[in-house]
Amino acid sequence: MKLLEYEAKRVFAEYGIPVPKGVVIRAPEEVAAHLPDLGGGVVLKAQVDVGGRGKAGGVLMADRATAAETARELFSREIKGVPVGEILAEERLAIEHEYYVSIAVDRSSRQPVVLFADAGGVEIEKMAQEDESAVRRVVVSPLLRDIPPFLMRELLGGAPKELAPVINCLYHVFQGKDAMLAEINPLVTTPRGVYAADAKLIVDDNALARQGIAVNRDLSEREREAEKHGFSYVELDGSIGVIGNGAGLTMSTLDLIEFYNGRAANFLDVGGGADQERVMHAVRLVASMPGVNVIVVNLLGGITRCDEVAKGIIAAGVTPTVIVRMAGTNEEEGRRLLAGCGYRMLESMDAAVKAAMEVSL
Amino acid sequence: MIYGDKNLGVIVQNITGRQGTFHTELMNAYAREVGGRGVVAGVAPGKAGREVHGVPVYNTVKEALAEHDATASVVFVPAGAAGDAVMEAAHAGIELAVVITEHIPVHDAMSAIAYAKLHDCTVIGPNCPGLLSPGECKLGIMPAHLARRGNVGVVSRSGTLTYEVFDELTRAGIGQSTIVGIGGDPVIGQTFVDVLARFDEDPHTKAVIVIGEVGGNLEEEGVRSTDLPVVTYIAGVSAPPEKRMGHAGAIIEGGEGDARSKVRRLRALEIPVASRPSEIPGLIREVL
User: Fold this and answer.
1) Is there a domain that residue A165 lies in?
2) CA distances from A80 to A52, A57, A77, A305, B48 (A)
3) Do the domain assignments include residue A3?
4) DSSP character for A215?
5) Which residue ranges does the record assign to the ATP-grasp domain (chain A) (predicted)?
6) Residue A240 forms beta bridges with which residues?
7) What residue numbers bound the domain in which B80 lies?
8) Residue B168 in this model has a pLDDT that exceeds 90
9) B218 with B267, same domain?
10) Average pLDDT score over residue span B147-161
């Protein structure tokens, strides 16, 4: 889950990374009360979870006289379609130089990778594409508590040594907060020292519970229901409901619907080892979406047992036609149960998808 | 047979759990069918002295290995403790740990895999269905009755999609040498490159199927690394950007990992890419 900038900065500060003085405001009037603390210049930053926020008009500069008016202006905007409900008002730093640093999970080496660039505040992907040498990278063994000095020297090159402790603190954030990504862009030098002018922190969804972070997103009623049961659920705009087990197979089923020029209404992955009750909730959930007139269940039992799935489908008892393709663990029993209740079963996913297309038309 | 054969002795960690118990029975049924050794011991802290389908249970991996000759472990330990379980296995001398558990925090996976490497322990997974060499051994949860012995290797990031593919192959009369599910998480012990290196040295494998999905660029790294004929399939071409389609691996990251561009890049390397699973048998016949 991606934290908002002010949430990330709060975490960074806890780990000893200097951040600009700032407050979160939820109405334009609130800015006045905090002006004395923030100094002469103020930066107003919309707290919305979108990429390229600055370019989209989500960051505005102001001085004491214009702060309230500028805040009002920002609250009235939508940044890439997202309304602005919170603004981070920060002191304006006297920036000498901007750098880029980020720490992410590197799939290839299976280790944390630290990226550093002598130019910050820009799009790192673009910079790396234009000049590969502009971004330096080192991988750090996850068994180490700190970035060792020799790697830090390699990373920094000619950049000031005073950045090193801040980058090491960022590494502690990365490890301590189960981050998928911890980024400071720009990391700035000022006459008063080094600051994280921006902050980005994405926490591993599988570690939210132990980090004590509650997921707080805008969800539809069906999405909330899916989350309650731990289903991966995505809504699309067609008429064929899709239930599968495993992300790959479920996605592949969607791809096949598209291949045959059909349109899926939604996507639900029941996950591994789903029992009767989970399957029942899954079928009811997918069926409850308006416009769904047929549901394809594509199920390959490994850890999941086909007989449990069959019982769940039968227990759901929904109106849209349910077309089932199942194979694998306990498949004979599963098929026997479904056949006994008159369900339509097909041998292959191609055949199941084609049959669903006919019903949906 | 790239990770083991009939003679492989296996332990199961968290053998007393629901899945551990159920799949120990299935793994041993398969071992009996093919004349292999199968699961020789189980581990469940605090439950030493019990038996699960005739398999003795020990408190620790070390205690199990003191009594039984095993070099592989299948891990069914719940997510929060699974990283620790892998390290315990590696520390005790296990050479191959197959981690079925899903939802392991990625930092735990990174540490456990790095620690296992220090102890020369190979990790497959996490969040994977395990491996199956038809006629030889099964470690994990794959529905073995859908597979058949042959000379096509299968390596995949997606569990159930793997079953789909070897089911298609078997029905088309094409057998498999070894099937490896490497898992869909961002950090996995064995990547396509690692598994394909083993297939390259395996006299039983004549061609390989690489099954990938949205996210990362490990499929490309893999197919570039092997000398064997390869056929690929990439799931998720219809996945809308920015949506999380299932597990962590299946999310599009900044354009790099989206399935359509992945398919394009593979085709640019003159690798056959199936547009649906049912096309795979035909394509593999062409390269065999």
Assistant:
1) yes
2) 9, 9, 9, 44, 59
3) no
4) P
5) 9-214
6) A264, A294
7) 9-124
8) yes
9) yes
10) 94
Last residue of a domain, one of A159, A191, A210: A210
Neighbour count for residue A67 (Cβ, 10 Å): 23
Residue B63 in tokens:
């205690």
Q: Which residue of B has its CA nearest to A205?
A: B105
B13 annotated binding-site participant: no
Q: Does the structure show a pLDDT above 60 at B249?
A: no
Give the SS3 label for residue A322: strand
Task: Return the pLDDT at B253.
Answer: 43
Do A243 and A174 lie in one domain? The reply is no
B249/A contact by beta carbon, under 8 A: yes
Domain count, chain A: 3
Q: What is the CATH number of the domain that holds A51?
A: 3.30.1490.20
Domain-located, residue A228? yes
Which pLDDT belongs to residue A323?
95
- A252–chain B Cβ distance below 8 A for any pair: yes
B223 inside domain: yes
Task: Give the closest of B109, B167, B276 to A255, CB-based.
Answer: B276
**pLDDT bucket at B256, cuts 50 / 70 / 90:** low
**Could you tell me the residue range of the domain that residue A157 belongs to?**
97-210
- Does B141 fall in a domain? no
Is residue A243 located within the same domain as residue A339? yes
Low-confidence ranges of chain A (pLDDT < 50): none
Query: Is B252 at the interface with chain A, CB within 8 A?
Result: no
**B213 CA: distance to closest CA in chain A (Å):** 7
CATH number of the domain bearing residue B69? 3.40.50.720
A253 in reach of chain B (CB within 8 A): no
A183 catalytic? Reply is yes
The two structure tokens encoding residue A225: 């229901």
Which residue, among B160, B209, B233, B262, would best test binding to A if mutated, counting the most A CBs under 10 Å from its CB?
A: B160
Chain-centroid distance of CA A133 in Å reads 29
Q: How does pLDDT run across A46-67, given as a tens digit for each residue?
A: 999 887 888 889 999 999 889 9
**Predicted TM-score (pTM) of this structure:** 0.90
Query: Which residue blocks in chain B are alpha helix, DSSP H?
Result: 18-34, 61-67, 79-92, 106-118, 159-171, 192-200, 218-225, 259-268, 280-287
Confidence of residue B124 (pLDDT cuts 50, 70, 90): very high
The CATH number of residue A101's host domain is 3.30.470.20
Same domain for A354 and A236? yes
B174 within some domain: yes
